[in-house]
Amino acid sequence: MCEVLKVSKSGYYSWRNRPESARSKDNRSLLIQIRLSHRRSRQTYGSPRITEDLRAQGVCCSENRVGRLMPQNGIRAKMRRKFKATTDSGHNLPVVPNLLDRKFAVDRPNAVWVSDISYIWTDEGWLYFAGVLDLYSRRVVGWSVG
Fold this sequence. Notes:
With about 150 residues, the chain is an alpha+beta fold. It is about 35% helix and about 20% strand. The protein has two domains: about 1-70, no CATH class; about 115-145, no CATH class.
């Protein structure tokens, strides 16, 4: 193994028998406190609030250190998305009448087209999709993504 890693045998055994560093011990101790604080918050606190909580208990730590240790050990806050209304129905603008009135049976092509939009959250932001269908054949007449 030492040959493959290109290290000396004496260097390997020296590293293996070396006592744990003070920083490593402090990180292990701090990680226990972080896990307790995270559990008490029902896993909702991120590094800023956990740091604040630990400081209130008298634990000396920085937000950067807590922020580094959390993801390294698989600790992350559960984020609850707030409800956001996307439709404003309480307006004084004219409303287009419902011409179909739920009568979806059509007897010839290109007589009735219907459309809808949808949106999907991606890593790059919202992806919007709009599609138009011929109601007779159910074929896509047109679509757009943006």
